[in-house]
Every structure is written in structure tokens, then in C-alpha cells.
Amino acid sequence: MNDQTFTSLMHWLDILYKLWPIACGIAVIAIVWSRTRSPFFVFHQALKWLGLEGKYTCEDDQKVADDYLDLNKFNLKTGFQLRSVKAKRNLHQWMREHELEFPELRRAGRLFKANDLTFDVPGSLRRRLTQLTYVAFAGCFMTSGLFVANSDYALLKINATGTWFWAGKNEAYSVRFEFPEPFRGDAWRMQQGDCRYTNHPQPNLDIWESDVICQLVVGFGNDFVSDAISSQLKMAVALELLGLLMLGLLVRFMFWVRSAGELQAQLHLTPPAFERESHGKPVEVTESGASAVVDACG
User: What residue intervals traverse the membrane (predicted)?
Assistant: First the structure.
């Protein structure tokens, strides 16, 4: 009866547990897409696993396919999201000209735009808004984790009416019962005495809601409440870890910004390698070049 009447956070954990293989598959596809911006690699691997990977009879076609596969593998490893083989060649040439290494560029993360060979260093407003967003998400996750991290009471919902409440220690009270006075709303609390000696123990609830909550208060669902508490403690840990993840992403973003700014300044101050090599050397003039200068000067 309790499983049909009430819903706890344990219900959502059970759903996630049953769907985790699908969730993992979607996560892998999302990661591949975010790093390559192309479904080619996913389809290629699927065909390879199914034994349907074929070779082209035309050498030119096979070379194009191999180059495109190498491009997607390169994107998957580096996260540069290059759109074409030509963009990849331009990247390698640009790196040689400026004597840059892949680890240096990867320190700039998503702020390095490999297709344009530029660094998208955010301004102060954009940087602050991004930092505020990460902090807000971290605060929401960690606050939610602290809210449900109650080892004595289970957070439950009556399925028929959608009413949420806390239940445990032979009592029940509304979700906002312990909030400050301006935020409590229609707060209520029910104890064993209210359920045993009063026909309608709580005016803020209808009679049916009072009856089903009283069944928990008088001890008819202790095992259900214990399981719900155990599941919500696990949920609290997961939410707090998500909050820490948001803070980690914030630190990573700040590292990206600093690295991208340093690399951008380095490129502005240091000319390409071929310019440095030719600087100060005498220019060789060929006979054809000398003749052309004489003809131009008359």
C-alpha cells in the first residue's frame, strides 16, 4: 500500500538504476558529439562492431574516407572540433610557424577555436556571468543535497494529491514547517496523539490525506520510511558531488581563460618562425629578378 500511496526519492533512484545502460550510451554519444561535432565516428564504430565496415575499390575514395576518419579520431582525442581535413592541415602549419605544441593549445580548452586559429578570450562581463552561472548551479546542487540529507525523516509525496511532507520518529510535518516564518506557508505537524485521539488531526489537509499520513505516524510503514531515508541519503551525496563538479568546472574555466590570454599575448609579441629566420639575412636576387627590376625601372 505504501508503494502505491507514496513516492520517495528512492523511486527516482530505482528509475535511474534501471535506465543506467541507456543513460551511459547517451552520455558516450554526447561526449563524442561534443568533441567531434560529427556523427561520423559513432556510425563508423557501429558499422565496425557489426562487421559491416567496407573498403572502397577506388584509391581516391579510400584516401578520402581514411583522411576523414583520421580527422574525427584527431578531434575525439583533442576536442578541437575541426570541420575539415584542410582545417587540420592549416592547424599543423600554423603550429609549426608559431612553434606551438598540442599540450599548450589544449590548456586553453574550448577557448581555442581551431578552425579559425584564434583564442576566444572572454571579456570581463562574459567571464563574470559564466562564473556566476557555475556558482549558482553549485549552490543549488549543494543546497538541495543538504536539504534532503536528513537521517531521521523521509521526504515523501502523496501520489494522489501531490503533497510533499517529512515523516519519521512517529510524526510528520510539512516540507516548509522548519522554514523561517515568512516562508512557511500553511505549515502543519502531526504526531501520534493527533492521529489517535482526533478525528481530523490537521485542518490544512483533507481527511483522506490525514488518514494516510497517520498510518505512517502510528508506525504502519516503518520499513518503507527506513528505505526512503537510506535512498535520500544516497541522493544527497550525489547532489553534493554534482555541486563539487560545478566548482571543478568553474576552476577549469578560469584556467582556460588564463591560458588562452597568455597564448594570445604570446602570439602578438612573437612573430612566426619563418619571419624570425628571415630577419637580418640578405635577400638573394636572381638573374630573372634583377632583369625584372631593370625592366620596371626602365
Answer: 15-33, 132-149, 235-255
